[in-house]
Amino acid sequence: MYSDAGFDVSRCGRYLALCELDPQVGYHLRTFSLQRRSMGVALQTVALPNCPFVTSVQFAPLPFAVLIGYGRCQAPALAQAPQYAVLRCIEFQPKPGGARQLTEEVELFAVDSTDESNVALFHPHPHACAELGFLYATKDGRIRAFKFDRTGMQLGGAGSS
User: What are this entry's molecular-function GO terms (predicted)?
Assistant: First the structure.
């Protein structure tokens, strides 16, 4: 188990999330149990397509999702402005065995931008997180804040500086 992008332990202390590079497949999100009877058991593995590196990994305050910040991902076509995923929010679905899942099966949302994400964080308060409030900082010093409405499945920007 190795992760350049760091890792996060859920607030309840029962789960570990990290992004791991498999040279043949690319990056994938892996979650593991930290509970005494099942320590180290893989619970979920999610492929992260077209991603050369991950800058941050964080569990939501209530462990139902994991936020993954990306650096620069997809290479744009020559005639297009560069736009690529800067973060993804993956629904945490713990299942013993950790069978590999496709991103589209568990992705709650992704944010595409011309920014380079440096770090991505959920709002620390569980109530705000229940509405999936989060922000990310860019490599050029800007902060972007968003809220994802799970009932309407819409992503809205709450401002940036």
Answer: ubiquitin-like ligase-substrate adaptor activity
